[in-house]
Design goal:
By secondary structure, the protein is α+β, with helices and mostly antiparallel strands. It contains three helices and nine strands, in the order H-E-H-E-E-E-E-E-E-E-H-E.
Length: about 120
Amino acid sequence: MRIFYLSFLLSLMVVSAQAGERILDRSTLLDMVSQKVLILRLFGIKLKIMEDGRIEGKAMGRDIVGDWEWQDGFFCRSMFWGERDIGYNCQEVSIKNKKIKFTSDRGLGASAQFLIKPNADLK
């Protein structure tokens, strides 16, 4: 059941959050997340968005891997949690204080808000 729930969370990434400043380009996103870890503590999710287009992370003891690109003002990614395919989705990205929010379906879907931690470990 935990696997189903986390898979569902990673695909929808639901959270209530106040609006922040929208990130409109790849370089601004990388300025915010390069060399940092994105953390969603409630579900034990830790992610790194790499400059070379890779995504690495961990959630509930399983690896998260994927690829991303910046396309028409959106963060578009495909991702796996362990062997489970989370799928491809383009997401609106916004930032407020030390938190970054990804909203699925080009800003029309569910969202997840991560704490940005410098020099944090994925373990």
